[in-house]
Amino acid sequence: MSANRSNRILAGDAVVQLESVRKRFGGERSGVEALHGVTLGLERNSFTAIMGPSGSGKSTLLQIAAGLDRPSSGSVVLDGEDLSGLGDVALTRLRRERIGFVFQAFNLLPALTVEQNVALPLRLAGRRAKRAEVRSVIERVGLESRRRHRPAELSGGEQQRVAIARALITRPAVIFGDEPTGALDTGTAEEVLRLLREAVEREGQTVVVVTHDPTAASRAERVVFLVDGRVAGELRRPSAAAVAERMAGLGAWASPTRARHAAGSG
């Protein structure tokens, strides 16, 4: 597949399309350019990982793609909606109805049970949370027996599974994850990645994650690399070794020894 085809997914194939997106923080003279005219299509019903060195613009790209921040210039179209044409109220409604989020810190409300946390996006969107629907998605992530527990009574992996259920409950156009396995041990991270993979394969969801972990990235169908706010290539269905090698080539890995260790573990 050509680079042009990779970055410009044809209309109808892309759930998110960024076109010449530029993001600058601060003034023209003293500010920082986080993204330099990024054009990138994110395919529907796919699992994409975004990687790059620290400060490469990964999180900024995710925030702009998800409508959490606005670009300085360029456009973002999500599920057919041009985000630049939406006011704050409409943008908030779109995020509630069409986007799911899974963060490293879980972001669960401590006073609510698992059921209540999962149902929350429906309530915020003004929709009635059907008990059978909520229980079904909780069962899908393996927490049926924990549905009346509160976050403090759950392990980190269980809390992240609640976060995934919460992201799935509205059947969003796309689920964005910001280091969703960053706070988890290896075995628990594998379980979370399996659930995200199943959301794509069984439910037809679209998942986009920012990660620093080559093993996590290797579970994606497509890995997009950023360097200095620009797309620096991609890999399709890579091994963890291939991802670690590419990251080392970008200067993103701490040392050749660590890169070889990560490659060997994949």
Q: What do these coordinates show?
A:
37% of the residues lie in helices and 24% in strands. By secondary structure, the protein is an alpha/beta fold. The protein has one domain: Rossmann fold. The strands form two sheets. Strands 6-7-8-3-9-10 form a six-stranded mixed β-sheet, with helices on both faces. A four-stranded antiparallel β-sheet has the order 2-1-4-5, covered by helices on one side. The radius of gyration is 18 Å and the shape is globular.
Shape annotation: globular
Q: How many individual helices?
A: 10
The count of DSSP E runs of length 2 or more, i.e. the number of strands, is 10
End-to-end gap: 25 Å
Biggest sheet, open or closed, and with what strands and sense? Answer: 6 strands, mixed
Supply the helix-strand structural class. Answer: alpha/beta
CATH architecture name: 3-Layer(aba) Sandwich
Q: What is the arithmetic mean of pLDDT? A: 87
Q: Segments where pLDDT lies below 50 for 5+ residues? A: 1-11, 253-266
Helix content: 25-40%
Number of domains: 1
Q: What amount of the residues lies in strands?
A: 15-25%
State the fourth-level CATH superfamily: P-loop containing nucleotide triphosphate hydrolases
Name of the CATH first level: Alpha Beta
User: Mind telling me the C-alpha Rg?
Assistant: 18 Å
Order of H and E elements:
HEEEHEEHEHHHEHEHEEHH
The fold-level CATH name is: Rossmann fold
Provide the spatial order of strands within the biggest beta sheet.
6-7-8-3-9-10
Gist of the model:
By secondary structure, the protein is of the alpha/beta class. The protein contains ten helices and ten strands.
